[in-house]
Design goal:
Order of helices and strands: HHHHHHHHH
Shape: elongated
Largest sheet: none
Helix content: over 70%
Number of helices: 9
Structural class: mainly alpha
Distance between the termini: 80 Å
Length: about 240
């Protein structure tokens, strides 16, 4: 597509199509850019899931709240679309439902939520592994092009025929400097794009944790203990007031 570009054709051909290393650099750049673009499109759905969704406000009481809360959450999850269920927020609620049904008790739910938050953060960090590898690999390709270009320039120097070999020497130096300039420029662009996309994904994860802490906690807020000692303390406090 680059040789058919309607604008900056000569400049693009020089920096992108003059050497196989330039082809490899551009390929790696667009692979990384496609990954980040896919993530950016997915963040639109993640944000809409967080903005539009509100958990049921019903509260439950009794000795065992896990099963009714799990059923209420499952009813809420089942009413949503498949795209919503595949979001971070949807996966988090489904994990909570599985925990409540398996444990059959809300005990230890706070620790489990922290565990899920850590796992989600690690999952997001690992999803950028290829992008980070490409971001570091592009400058290495540029330096490799520098070495190859200087090697070509030196190998083509013929003192006896300096005028005739000067063109090949300058061509080798052009490969050296052009590949370096291309790789450093694309690497710099990738660093900033990755910073923006990863920051936006971290914000989605932070908002998810806030919603979990606030909305899941309200479902258990009306739980009352069956212990007579706790009830006696409550009665004594009421009389004192």
């Amino acid at each position: 597509m680059i040789p058919r570009s309607p604008v900056f054709r000569d400049l693009l051909e020089r920096y992108c199509c003059s050497h196989p290393i330039e082809y490899a650099t551009v390929y790696m750049f667009f692979i990384s850019l496609a990954i980040l673009l896919k993530k950016s499109v997915g963040l639109i759905g993640e944000n809409s899931s967080l903005k539009r969704d509100t958990l049921p406000t019903a509260q439950f009481s009794g000795s065992n709240l896990a099963i009714p809360v799990a059923e209420k959450l499952q009813e809420h999850v089942g009413s949503q679309s498949s795209r919503w269920r595949s979001s971070i927020w949807g996966h988090r609620l489904q994990d909570i439902i599985h925990y409540l049904r398996g444990k059959q008790s809300p005990e230890g739910l706070d620790d489990h939520l922290r565990y899920l938050a850590d796992m989600a953060a690690d999952r997001i960090h690992s999803s950028y592994a290829l992008v980070r590898t490409i971001t570091w690999g592009i400058p290495i390709l540029g330096f490799l092009g520098t070495v190859i270009g200087i090697t070509l320039a030196i190998s083509n120097v013929t003192p006896e025929q300096l005028d005739q070999s000067l063109d090949q020497v300058t061509r080798g130096l052009g490969v050296a400097f052009d590949t370096t300039a291309l790789s450093l420029s694309l690497s710099l662009v990738m660093v900033f794009i990755t910073f923006v996309v990863e920051g936006a994904e971290q914000q989605v994860l932070t908002r998810t944790e806030e919603l979990v802490m606030h909305q899941i906690g309200t479902l258990f807020s009306s739980r009352k203990s069956e212990s007579p000692l706790v009830q006696a303390e409550a009665d004594a406090a009421a009389l004192l007031v």
